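[09:14] KT: can someone run the structure on this one? pasting the chain below
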Amino acid sequence: MKTKQRIVYGALELFNQHGERNITTNHISEHLGISPGNLYYHYSNKQEIIRAIFKDYTSELLDRFRPYESQEQSLVLLKHYVNSTFSLMWKYRFFYANLADIVSRDAQLHSAYCQVQEKLRINLVAIVESFRTLNLIVVEPDNMPRFVTNLHFIANGWLAYQSAMSANQKVTESMIMQGMLQILAMVKPVATQLGREQLLLLEEGLQMTCTAEAE
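[09:31] RB: done, structure tokens below
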């Protein structure tokens, strides 16, 4: 792996473990066993590293949350989107947990974030429409924007909310699983009978995972 990518991966690991605010470029270079000069050769400051991490995040986000024009079973698609939400929130948990602060310090990053979220929102509308087509949910067209916004809000804001409620508590996989359950709870009221059956299967799997981790 090239040094430039090693820096991104190493920084992501440290940010997730200790919080982005607590990590400096010196911590990153020491963690990787390279000189600060070598790090600065590739990135002039920590903010550039954060932007590089965000670029990777963006690529994964838009790839995972794209509509599928296929005959996949509806449960397979539901699992895909739930698992994608979980894996992204876990992999980039430092970003989700402190989103407002991170983007407020960098106008360039904030602009990029808003552009990506708008693209994601378009994809989410198409995904929810596909669930309507699969007879999993019933949402009136006029209510679609608000429904999508609510789902988007929970996914984006769950870890920030949890971090605010428990300032000294580290983000855990169980905490993210609880966020997934919260999303399913939002979908249940508009689910069809078929949709509720499949949501129940997903919910049971998430609850079992949460229980296993607690033990």
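[09:33] KT: thanks! Residues 1-44 form a domain with the Arc Repressor Mutant, subunit A fold (CATH 1.10.10.60).
[09:34] RB: yep, looked fine to me
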